[in-house]
Amino acid sequence: MRILAIADVESKFIYDFFNPNNFKDIDLVIAAGDLNRHYLSYVATVIPVPLLYIYGNHDGKLLYEPPGGCICIDNEVYEYKGLRIAGLGGCMRYTGGTFQYTEKQMKSRIKKNWLKYRKGIDILVTHSPALGLGDGHDRAHVGFQCFLDLMEKYEPQLMIHGHQHKCYGHFEKKHHHHQTTIVNAYDYAIYDFDEKKLIR
Questions:
Q1: Maximum pairwise Cα distance, the chain
Q2: Are strands 158-161 and 123-126 parallel, antiparallel or unpaired?
Q3: Which of 127, 190, 179 is nearest to 153 (CA)?
Q4: Using alpha carbons only, what angle is made at residue 88 by residues 91 and 73, rounded to the nearest 5 degrees?
Q5: Coil, helix or strand for 182?
Q6: What's the DSSP call for residue 47?
Q7: CA dihedral in degrees (125, 69, 1, 150; nearest 10)?
Q8: Is 73 exposed, middle or buried (0-12, 13-18, 19+ CB in 10 A)?
């Protein structure tokens, strides 16, 4: 299964220079937060496969104006072609805004979802990175320890996140944690799930 992951910025490759031949093999689009509804609806229109999204820390408007043609999986587990995809939006609390959580609050969200997770997780979708794996050093961009715990317990094959931009300094597109491949979806990334391979 080939997955297009997007987050944080409107990709010029997709929005300004769209070529359908570049995306003809995409089976699923996953948006990892901080993308406006017009862009999400556009992507869902030009790439006619399911588009799943979660909330980033700047996505309060999506609560009132959700993107057309898209499926919100924040705090849910969505099943697609035999894959179980869990969504946990938001980032570390730094101003108290919408979709900001303390470590304790995020851990509580995970604990409340144990019934949804008990059949397993194949793909974990978050906005924030996990602690120490592609996160930043400032309070707004540090990752969550509980995401590490979640990966260690359920061993998803793939974790997709956003939130950490290229312009913030140290940036890597791909990490690993035990059995999980971690991909930063900033701008866009194409991942071949069956072969566990980051294409670009």
A1: 45
A2: parallel
A3: 179
A4: 135
A5: strand
A6: S
A7: 10
A8: buried
CA-wise closest residue to 83 among 199, 191, 198: 191
Amino acid letter at 192?
A: D
What is the DSSP code string of 93-117? -SS--TTEE-HHHHHHHHHHTHHHH
The pLDDT score that the predictor gives to residue 140 is 86
Q: Which amino acid does the sequence have at 56?
A: G
Q: What's the confidence (pLDDT) of residue 170? A: 66
Q: Which of 66, 61, 60 shows the shortest CA–CA distance to 52?
A: 66
**CA–CA separation, 40 and 53 (whole Å):** 9
Which two tokens mark 40? 């999400």
User: For residue 182, what pLDDT is reported?
Assistant: 95
Which residue, among 180, 41, 199, has the nearest Cα to 124 in the 3D structure?
180
54 neighbors 6 (Cβ within 8 angstroms): no
Could you tell me if 133 and 151 are in contact, meaning their C-beta atoms sit under 8 angstroms apart?
Answer: no
From residue 133, give the alpha-carbon distance in Å to each of 84, 114, 152, 159: 23, 24, 14, 11
Q: What value, to the nearest 5°, has the Cα angle with vertex 109 and ends 112 and 102?
A: 150
- Coil, helix or strand at residue 136: coil
Residue 172 has pLDDT above 90, yes or no: no
d(CA 194, CA 90): 28
For residue 200, give both structure tokens: 């670009």
